[in-house]
Amino acid sequence: MTDKNININFKEYASFDELETADRELAEAAVDAMKGSYAPYSHFNVGAAVRLGNGQIVMGANQENAAFPSGLCAERTAMFAAGAQYPDQDMVSIAIAGGVMGRLAKSPATPCGGCRQVMAQYQTKSGKPMTVLMIGEGRIWKFEKVDDILPLIFDSI
Question: What gap in Å lies between CA 44 and CA 37, rounded to an integer?
Answer without folding.
Answer: 8
